[in-house]
Specification:
Elements: H1 21-34, H2 38-52, E1 58-62, H3 68-77, E2 83-88, H4 91-102, E3 110-114, E4 125-131, H5 139-152, E5 153-164, H6 170-186, H7 191-201, H8 210-220, E6 224-231, E7 234-240
Bound molecules: S-adenosylmethionine.
């Protein structure tokens, strides 16, 4: 796994964050050192997919990046047949995913689609996964996407999604940021790298509160839903239609 050193050296100005070749090449290291409990999220989601997958339905992974969920689902499903549609609009991410997918015996069960998730048709879905991707869309696109996900899910189908979030309370917001930067320092990011990444993500990644997400999910129609994992400013949900 190539180490993420993108923000280690001084940059002036810091360009807005993009999912380009440079990021794709170090992305797995970036995820593991930037998202608390990332491996746990992916492993448990794959197990949930295996437990809830309705036969012959489609699994969607929207904002699939380099395919960590897809690979984990292949392992969790074993010999069970499934059909996964993995969507991303970064060619650099999809190129890495494609290479990893081809190395797996069940890799042909995953179809990679280079598209904007705001346009992807969602039909006959048994499971929809959206990890750390809603946060990069406009608020209106988030509403529309979650509405389409709800409509595209079979009754009983699952939406599994994870997001970076903000606390509604200003003091807790400061506290969660302090804890998060401590986590990043513990994972080898310098203060300069943390500050420059933060600047790069400003106006690109807009986190919302748990209440905002709850409003959107219930507004779309989800009635059975819960947060199954939360770590300060990170949150994973399970929602059933
Ligand atoms: C933080 S990464 C997601 C990580 C991945 N889901 C995982 O769990 O490993 C966000 C991904 O969403 C993609 N993305 C962002 N906006 C998108 C859009 N409008 N349409 C399609 N993909 C998008 C990016 O290219 C990037 O690969």
């Amino acid at each position: 796994m190539k180490r993420d050193t993108i923000y280690d050296t001084h940059r002036q100005p810091v360009p807005p964050f993009e999912f380009n070749d440079q990021v794709a090449a170090v992305f797995d290291d970036m995820l593991k050192r930037s998202i608390p409990l990332y491996d746990e999220i992916i492993r448990r989601q794959a197990q949930l997919v295996a437990a809830f997958y309705p036969e012959n339905s489609r699994i969607y992974d929207l904002g699939c990046s380099t395919g960590n969920v897809g690979l984990a689902v292949c392992e969790a499903m074993g010999s069970t047949s499934f059909n996964m549609i993995a969507v991303d609009n970064s060619a650099a991410m999809l190129a890495i995913y494609d290479e990893r997918r081809r190395a797996l015996p069940a890799g042909d069960r995953i179809t990679l689609v280079d598209d904007d998730v705001t346009r992807t048709a969602i039909e006959d879905a048994g499971i929809v996964i959206i990890n750390f991707t809603l946060q990069f869309l406009s608020l209106a696109d988030r509403d529309r996407l979650i509405d389409r996900v709800y409509r595209g899910l079979r009754p009983g189908g699952l939406l599994l999604f994870s997001e970076k979030i903000v606390h509604a309370d200003d003091d807790f917001c400061t506290l969660q940021q302090d804890v998060y930067y401590r986590f990043k320092r513990e994972n080898g990011y310098s203060d300069l790298a943390i500050a420059q990444k933060r600047e790069a993500l400003e106006r690109v990644l807009i986190p919302e509160t748990v209440a905002d997400h709850l409003r959107r999910l219930t507004g779309a129609g989800f009635k059975r839903l819960d947060i199954w994992l939360k770590w300060f400013n990170f949150c994973s949900w399970i929602c059933q239609k």
